[in-house]
């Protein structure tokens, strides 16, 4: 029997139809194991090819010079950025009921390691830790810019998720507006607080910890679990156990612990 489940955080209903997973797929292709090289001469994210990317905004390296090899995590503006950092938000224009403004923002690529063929679960713990510390560093730096209202860090894994380059990388977008999906979550959380007097994410965390069947991993300060109303198979959330509203307030120690949860919950 299919089941409808409501996500308490968004009030959105999802259909859990396990039978649908068994339907025949005429177009499904057998999984092809592709063996990637550790270094690819024409990859713009591989060491030695730094000149193929815009100048770096941050890199972890010992010795060497900026925009040269020797780094283990490296960030730079996305060459095909959706938004540009130059510009002012005071240039808002109105035409009747229509409003527009400059596409100001920062869109960065964070290359996660020098090796072309690694992925987070296969990296050394220390390397994953350095990636999260880089996320934190860039987040804190961009948060200082008063034009930005939201900073999102995300990663598309695999071609089906829309990534155009194989080399392990994440992206960061700092933008002057808050998209509808985030505003919606914020409004629903505020509504939950008005009705129940509690934080909906803290409530979800408590449920996730109680129902051990959906739990993936728990450490001193974080828990990873599959949400009750998952929107996709294997959807996993990592939530800090202490109420915390912003990734920007994560400490160095918490960032290290988070990196271990991320790696092992993958
Ligand atoms: Zn590469
Ligand atoms: Zn909370």
**What class would the helix/strand composition place it in?**
alpha+beta
> Distance N terminus to C terminus?
29 Å
The profile of the biggest β sheet is: 5 strands, antiparallel
CATH architecture descriptor text of the largest domain: 2-Layer Sandwich
Question: Beta fraction of the residues?
Answer: 15-25%
* Succession of helices and strands: EEEEEEEHEEHHEEEH
Helix content: 10-25%
| Rg, Å, rounded | 21 Å
* Helix segment tally: 4
The gist of it:
It is built from four helices and twelve strands; from the N terminus they run E-E-E-E-E-E-E-H-E-E-H-H-E-E-E-H. It has 266 residues and is an alpha+beta fold.
Description:
With 266 residues, the chain is α+β, with helices and mostly antiparallel strands. It has four helices and twelve strands, in the order E-E-E-E-E-E-E-H-E-E-H-H-E-E-E-H. The strands form four sheets. The chain has a five-stranded antiparallel sheet with strand order 3-4-7-9-8, with helices on one face. A three-stranded antiparallel sheet has the order 10-11-12, sandwiched between helices. A hairpin with a 6-residue loop joins strand 1 and strand 2. The model has no long low-confidence stretch (mean pLDDT 90). The structure holds zinc ion (2 copies). One zinc ion binds next to loops.
